[in-house]
Amino acid sequence: MRHLLWAACSQLLPQEAGLHAHKLSAAAVVATLQFVARPVGVCSMMKLPVQASAEGLDAAFVGVPLDTGTSNRPGARFGPRQIRAESAMVRRYNASTGAAPFDSLQVADIGDVNVNLYNLPDSCRLIRESYQKIVASGCVPLTLGGDHTITYPILQALAEKHGPVGLVHVDAHTDTGDRALGEKIYHGTPFRRCVEEGLLDCSRVVQVGIRGSSYDPDPYKYCQDQGFRVVPAEECWGKSLVPLMGEVRKQMGDKPVYISFDIDGLDPAYAPGTGTPEIAGLTPAQALEIIRGCKGLNIVGCDLVEVAPMYDVSGNTALLGANLLFEMLCVLPKVKTM
By CB distance 3.0 to 4.6 Å, which of 68, 193, 312, 336 could disulfide with 317? Predict the structure, then answer.
C-alpha cells in the first residue's frame, strides 16, 4: 500500500521533474502544489505522502477523530478531516520566520488512530498504544484532534520515554476538573489526570488564554497549587505576547516540552468552529507569537484540538488549525531556516 501511495503522488508531478516514486521526499510532494490544482489528489495534511507508520520519519501528522469526551457541542471527530482539507492552502516555506521544515525533516501523514467512539476509556487505550509506537520510532507526533481528552493518553505515551514533560497549553479552559456526571475522563479533566500520574513537570506548565465563567469561586486554585503558571486572557488583551514567551522559554529550559493548543483559546470571532467557545479570547497573531516563541525548546510533541467544522461553514477555523500545526512543525528541533 505504501508503494501505491508514493506512486500516486508521483503521478501528480510533471514528467520533466525527473522524480521517481522511490525518490520522492516530503519537500518534493509539497512542491507539486506549484504544478497541480489544490483539489487534486489524496486529502492528506499539506498533500504530504501518506504512510502506515512513523518508521523512518522525524515528524508525523496523525489524526485522532474522537469527540465522545465533549461536554457541550460535539463534532470534533470531524476536525482531522477538515483540517487536512484546508491544509491544501499551506505552502512549503514559512516566509515570516524563514523556517524550512521539509528541507530539514522527513515528514508524512500517518493517518488516524482507530478510536472506539462507543467507549472513551478504550479509546484512550487505543490512542496510548498507537503513540507508544510512534514515540518508540523516534518520531515527533503532531496531532489533529479530536477533543482535548486525547492529550491525556498521548502524554501517557510520551512520558514513558521522556519522563515528566513541560507543557505550553493554550486554551480558554484549564481542563483540570476532577469529574463530570461521575466520570473522571472527558475533555475537561486531562491535565488533572496527567498530574495524578506524574506525567507533567508541574514547575514547567504554562496555561495561556484562560477565561470564561466558572463553577468555582477560585477556578485557578488547583492549577496554582500544583505550581502551574496561569495567564488569563485579560492579561493578554491588546498586547504582544513576545515578552511572555521569553519568560516561558526560560521556565521550560532544555527539558522535554509538549505543546497543546485548543482552538477555543482563540476568540470565537476568529474560530467559531468549536464545541465550547468563550468570548474575549486570543487573536491569531497572538497564537503565532506563542508558537513561534517556542522555537529553541526541546519539543517532543504537539496537538491542535477541538476543531468542530460544522459550526463554521467558512472553513476558517480548520484553516487556522492547519496553519497553527504548520507553525508547530516549523519550531521543532533541527528545523533549519532559509
Answer: 312
